[in-house]
Amino acid sequence: MCEEATRSPRGLLGAVFVLYVAAVSFTAWHHEPWFDEAQAWLIARDSGLIELLTDRLRYEGSPGLWHLLLAVPAKLGLPYRTISLISVTLAIATVFLFLRYSPFTWHVKALFPFGFFTIYQYAVVARSYVLMALVLVALAAVYHRRNERPVLWFFLLGLLANVNVHGFFIAGFLAAYHLVQLAIHRRQLPARTLRAHGVGAVVLGSIAVLEILQLLPPDDLSFPADSTNFRCMILLALPFTPWVASSIPVLAFSAFLFWRRRLLLVWLGPTAAVLWIFVFKTASCWHEGIIYYYWVFCLWIALDAPPRAADRPPDAAAGQLAMAANVMMILVLAVQVYWGMICAARDVLYAYSGSQAASRYLAEHRLMDREIYACGYSTVSLLPYFPENIFDNYHGKRNPSYYLWAEGNALARPFDHARRQRPEFILVGVKTPRTKPQRTTGYTLRRRFLGALYWKDGFLEADSFYLYQRIDLAGPNHPERDQTALAGPHKPLE
Fold first, then answer.
1. Backbone angles phi, psi at 478, to 5 degrees
2. What is the number of structural domains in the chain?
3. Residue 307: helix, strand or coil by DSSP?
């Protein structure tokens, strides 16, 4: 792509960067972390290094790079909200690299930071995906210089492989493709370069073997109901536009562009591997951003072609193709920005999770010193706000506090089981909207803490908590009886 087309006004992009930092920080400040964020923090806080790497990750089905990153602040006793600071910092670094090094026009650069995954889902919601986005952007920046920077190239691939299983497959394919290209062009490269890449490949392969052994599932593993999805076209299309029909032209043009730039296999291989995971292992809307960010990676390296030889005339067709690719990205990003603004606004105005309000309420009324039973895995979302486990029916109010995805977990038992033990309080995690309180003998609803997870422009699921109190302790005129902490425009402090 010609220099004139990609030249960006520095003042404008500087303002875009400052605006992004302000917007993502403001939204993260108002965000209430939910279960997946809490689980990673608790594993990092309550697990020893050897235990984490040899046992704990087997139940999570994910490598431990994110947990290791969280372990330092978690074990130092820093506040739970540090997880938001880490996530936002990584997201800001991603945007900085994109604005500084990407080959896109300034129009694309100005829109990209405010897309759904960049400003919200893989930034404000603090999960390992934010690390994956950063590594993919860094890989794109060095892709065409990977022969000269083998240490950096394989280091980034190693990081990507340890973010999550999807990153493992993507990194493995990129490494294999790179080694094949080296073998084809080996006569054109010095022996020192080939040796450096060979060492990098051996190290990366060793990491891959250790990771496979690290993630072998245990016999007592018990995940929620399988969420695999066989509609590959829907999973491939939805990251870009709201409808499959409108995404097909995006995918078709992308395939044509990658074919012209001899990168079709680079795009299709890892994308097919990720879709295989969706079909045969597990699929969730949370994973759509992986398809999206890898697509951005491929567009980046397609447009960031190596410098043209001085004796070659400009390729007008290539310039037109690059401009069409930028127009396509602008159209996709227009939808992404709409989704991002909707979710950011909802997170500021409404409670994403009721866990923060519930934990604050328990602390203010010193209820964590009373007898509390918990029902449902999502109740673990409250525990990062306390230095130790507060649930009597889970490890006897002792750490570890994370949820163990194993058969027989006490938190998986139903409400009636807890009621028969007659604890003073029962906290129930609620994932279905407008769930009516349990009508049961001996207990009364003391408080509801409402939360709602949103995805793009719609409601995804509830993340609420109902606190029940034994009726002989509450009394008919108890001032807190059956009150609700509403997840509304005025976020409750209780």
1. -60, 130
2. 2
3. coil
